[in-house]
């Protein structure tokens, strides 16, 4: 993990708090856990950001400062996974994600800011205690309305503002108060105890003198009640409806959620009024450039009490179901970057909507389809959040008990496990899915799982026609993204299990499709497949440029999934080219990448066979230097491993090119001809080369056709003749 500062960019002036900042700053050098406490609206979050900003500016932490806002999180079980996602740590694990955090943070000198912990106090207390115990270089700064109660915790109280409250009022005032109103402003700020949120709410309202007359001494709750009274009925209803959002949202979402109580055409105007009254905070999306909205937590909690028992959460779930469905249909386009950004931006809302739907009678099927459709967008794989996806799908399996949806669900989960190399999980899921009734669409889901089992577990070429059938079904029933993924698996299986001609045709077609559709993700995979073809059937010298371009594209689009496959290809290619030192370091880096991404090439038969051959070659070449060199690669951070992989391969590291092989055969074909000359049967050849007997037999036939030889006996004689000449 590359750690960097990611503190929220601020658009308003930070006022006061010099004493709090000084106290907390002094503690950072000697305390590993600091908690900022204070009542709701005291400004704890903003103070934490400023403390982090000061530490970042001073270079106090070697690996920077990272902030995680927990206000969006409603499920304590997702705490570790949420922190991992915000720290951009790939989390594809089946456990709760804590292990992945420790793996990534144990050697970091880092300040981790956990904001809004009070609604998850027990979970945060346990989480922080164990994280600090496992990661000695870590310092944690939390904000909460009460202390965590963890050993070694230092508490800094965040009180209301003193005289600076007046400065804040003037900074935020909708209309600057006149000189004769200043005594009323000061009295008003004192009446609310200098609470920044209360001051900002009041500054957006009527002249200070009138506000002071209406309120008198007031708590934050009093200020919120007074603010609600000054709203129209539509504004109060909208405020209540918006309280269901666990994170920021856009206008379309607000219109959908509020449509049960506020006319859709009136939502935009009412929302603008809530922004003007400081009830809602507006910002600009870095993804779309459009306005997004957020209700501060204390304001949200009050709003939820305004109109109880609304159906807003159901409308929230249905809106995000439509959003995910649209993403699944449209992401495979030139707008893929925009869709991935939008999915990342909306993920807290999507995750909450799926969780609510799965737990709500009548919506469980909707929640299940949402969880599956998110996977179809490739977002959770690309963003390194397969762990969260697996949690949601596991919950879906508990509530969906009837076919045909359960059939699709089980097959979907099995395919995800297969892609990770987790065959122990995949096989039981596949077998149960096979036993259930099917429809055309569920049949497609089961077929791709069966084809992938034949491919990755059995190494059987029978998977190729099955994949071809799945491609045809996808063209009838599925969007373009699903179809391309099926074509991708068909090309990969053809490359590993069929002859050079079939592999060339399949991989060339895949790359042509990718270049025509304008989707960078698919282009990266098209390049990768051409590299695989050159490694297995063509010229390994050509592989490196293809694999590097594929990897560079994957990194550019933020794909956390594909780089492991590109590392595999580059490591095997270096072994084939005789760049043994580079190969050993990449093999070491690949093992670390497998562990971090929870991908196992060792359980995928075709990948394992090529990887084991490369490993044996490098071991023989480096002898005693092999373990040292692979360890150097394994110790690289992921960003360092990628930098190594992207380095051009110097000619000095390559062995001289081999002369053309007899008869124009590929290396594998010449090897098979030699085994025929030794008298081995197709079954014995398959066992020797980790391919199926049928594939071995097909290779023998193709070699005879290429050389114009009528029988295996003639092929054996030809090979002995070539050996005599050499």
From TrEMBL:
GO biological process terms held by the UniProt record: regulation of DNA-templated transcription
Domain of life of the native organism: Bacteria
Task: Name one matching Pfam family.
Answer: AAA_22
Q: Which GO terms describe its molecular function?
A: ADP binding; DNA binding
**Gene3D superfamilies of this UniProt entry?**
P-loop containing nucleotide triphosphate hydrolases (3.40.50.300), Winged helix-like DNA-binding domain superfamily/Winged helix DNA-binding domain (1.10.10.10)
Per UniProt, residues of the HTH luxR-type domain are 658-723
The record's listing under PANTHER family reads:
HTH-TYPE TRANSCRIPTIONAL REGULATOR RV0890C-RELATED, REGULATOR-RELATED
**Name the record gives this protein:** Predicted ATPase
Give the organism's phylogenetic lineage: Bacteria, Bacillati, Actinomycetota, Actinomycetes, Pseudonocardiales
């Amino acid at each position: 993990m590359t750690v960097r500062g990611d503190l929220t960019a601020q658009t308003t002036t930070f006022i006061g708090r010099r004493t709090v900042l000084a106290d907390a700053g002094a503690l950072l050098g000697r305390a590993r856990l600091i908690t900022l406490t204070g009542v709701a609206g005291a400004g704890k979050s903003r103070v934490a950001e400023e403390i982090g900003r000061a530490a970042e500016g001073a270079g106090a932490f070697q690996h920077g400062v990272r902030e995680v806002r927990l206000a969006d999180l409603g499920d304590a079980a997702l705490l570790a996974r949420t922190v991992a996602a915000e720290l951009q740590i790939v989390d594809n694990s089946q456990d709760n994600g804590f292990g992945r955090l420790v793996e990534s943070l144990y050697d970091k000198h880092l300040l981790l800011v956990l904001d809004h912990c009070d609604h998850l106090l027990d979970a945060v207390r346990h989480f922080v205690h164990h994280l600090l115990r496992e990661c000695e270089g870590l310092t944690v700064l939390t904000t909460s309305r009460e202390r965590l109660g963890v050993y070694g915790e230092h508490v800094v109280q965040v009180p209301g503002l003193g005289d600076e409250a007046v400065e804040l009022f003037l900074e935020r005032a909708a209309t600057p108060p006149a000189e004769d109103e200043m005594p009323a402003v000061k009295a008003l700020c004192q009446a609310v105890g200098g609470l920044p949120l209360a001051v900002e709410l009041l500054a957006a309202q009527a002249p200070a003198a009138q506000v002071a007359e209406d309120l008198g001494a007031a708590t934050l709750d009093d200020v919120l009640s007074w603010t609600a009274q000054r709203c129209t009925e539509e504004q109060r209803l909208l405020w209540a409806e918006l309280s269901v959002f666990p994170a920021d949202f856009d206008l379309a979402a607000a219109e959908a959620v509020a449509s049960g109580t506020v006319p859709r055409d009136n939502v935009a105007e009412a929302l603008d009024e809530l922004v003007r009254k400081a009830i809602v905070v507006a910002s600009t999306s870095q993804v779309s450039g459009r306005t997004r909205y957020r209700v501060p937590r204390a304001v949200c909690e009050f709003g939820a009490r305004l109109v109880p028992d609304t159906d807003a959460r159901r409308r929230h779930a249905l809106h995000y179901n439509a959003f995910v469905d649209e993403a699944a249909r449209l992401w495979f386009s030139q707008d893929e970057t925009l869709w991935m950004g939008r999915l990342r931006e909306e993920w807290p809302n999507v995750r909450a909507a799926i969780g609510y739907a799965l737990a709500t009678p009548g919506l469980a099927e909707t929640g299940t389809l949402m969880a599956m459709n998110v996977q179809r967008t490739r977002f959770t794989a690309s963003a390194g959040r397969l762990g969260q996806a697996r949690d949601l799908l596991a919950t879906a399996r508990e509530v969906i008990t009837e076919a045909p949806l359960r059939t699709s669900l089980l097959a979907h989960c099995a395919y995800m496990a297969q892609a990770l190399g987790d065959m122990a999980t995949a096989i039981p899921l596949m077998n149960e899915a096979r036993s259930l009734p099917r429809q055309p669409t569920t049949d497609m889901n089961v077929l791709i799982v069966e084809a992938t089992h034949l491919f990755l577990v059995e190494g059987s070429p029978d998977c190729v026609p099955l994949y071809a059938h799945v491609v045809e079904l996808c063209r009838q029933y599925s969007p373009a993204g699903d179809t391309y993924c099926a074509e991708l698996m068909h090309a990969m299986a053809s490359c590993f299990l069929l002859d050079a001609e079939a592999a060339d045709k399949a991989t060339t077609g895949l790359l042509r499709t990718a270049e025509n559709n304008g989707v960078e993700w698919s282009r990266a995979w098209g390049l990768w497949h051409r590299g695989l073809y050159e490694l297995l059937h063509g010229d390994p010298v050509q592989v490196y440029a293809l694999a590097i371009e594929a990897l560079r594209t994957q990194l550019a689009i933020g794909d956390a999934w594909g780089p492991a496959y590109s590392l595999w290809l580059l490591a095997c290619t270096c072994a084939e080219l005789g760049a043994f030192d580079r190969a050993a370091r990449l093999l070491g880096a690949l093992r670390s990448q497998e562990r971090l991404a929870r991908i196992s090439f060792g359980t995928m038969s075709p990948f394992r066979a090529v990887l084991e051959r490369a490993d044996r070659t490098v071991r023989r070449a480096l002898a005693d230097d092999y373990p040292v060199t692979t360890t150097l690669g394994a110790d690289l951070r992921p960003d360092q491993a990628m930098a190594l992989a992207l380095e051009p391969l110097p000619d000095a590291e390559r062995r001289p090119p081999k002369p053309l092989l007899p008869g124009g055969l590929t290396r594998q074909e010449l090897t098979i001809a030699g085994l025929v000359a030794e008298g081995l049967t197709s079954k014995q050849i398959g066992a020797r080369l980790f391919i199926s007997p049928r594939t071995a037999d097909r290779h023998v036939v193709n070699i005879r056709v290429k050389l114009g030889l009528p029988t295996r006996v003639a092929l054996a004689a030809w090979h002995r003749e070539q050996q005599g000449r050499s």
